[in-house]
Amino acid sequence: MADEQGLDLVEISAKADPPVCKILDYQKYVYQQKKKAKEMKANASKVVIKEIRFGPNTDEHDFQFKLAHAREFLQEGAKVKATIFFRGRSIMFKDQGEKQLLRFAVELEEYGRTEHMPVLEGKRMNIMIAPIKKK
C-alpha cells in the first residue's frame, strides 16, 4: 500500500501486538520533528544571572544603590548573584561581609528567595537570589 502511494511504511510501536505501523512521508515527518524541537527550544526560558559586586566596607549609600539595581533585576525575572570581594587584609572581616550579604538577602525578601546561604570561595563570598514567580 505504501509503495502504491509513493510513501514510507514507518513502524510506530514495535512492542505492541500486532506491531503498529503508519504510512507517511518519512522525510516530511523528520523535518516536522526538527521544526517542533527548534520551536520548543526557542520558547524555553533562559536563566539570566546578574552579578552585583561590593566590598565588606561598602558605604550605606552605595549599598542602597546596588540594592535598587538588584530589585530591578529580580523584577525582570533574572537571578541575582551578590558577591563581596575581599582584597588584601580585608579577608579579616569575613563576618562583616557575611552580615552584609545576609542584610542584602533580607532587604530583597519580597522580590526573591535566597537559594543558598553566603559561601566563601577563595577571596569571594557569594549569595544567590532567585526571583519569586508571579501568578
Folded structure, characterized:
- The longest helix has 18 residues, at 26-43.
- The protein has a four-stranded mixed sheet, covered by helices on one side. Strands 1-2 form a two-stranded antiparallel ribbon.
- The relative contact order is 0.13.
- 39% of the residues lie in helices and 31% in strands.
- The chain has two domains: 2-43, Roll (Ubiquitin-like (UB roll)), CATH 3.10.20.80; 49-131, Translation initiation factor 3 (IF-3), C-terminal domain (Translation Initiation Factor IF3).
- The chain contains four helices and six strands, in the order αββαβαβαββ.
- The model has no long low-confidence stretch (mean pLDDT 88).
- The protein is an alpha+beta fold.
Overview features:
135 residues; alpha+beta; Ubiquitin-like (UB roll); Translation Initiation Factor IF3; two-stranded antiparallel ribbon; 6 strands; 39% helix; rod-shaped
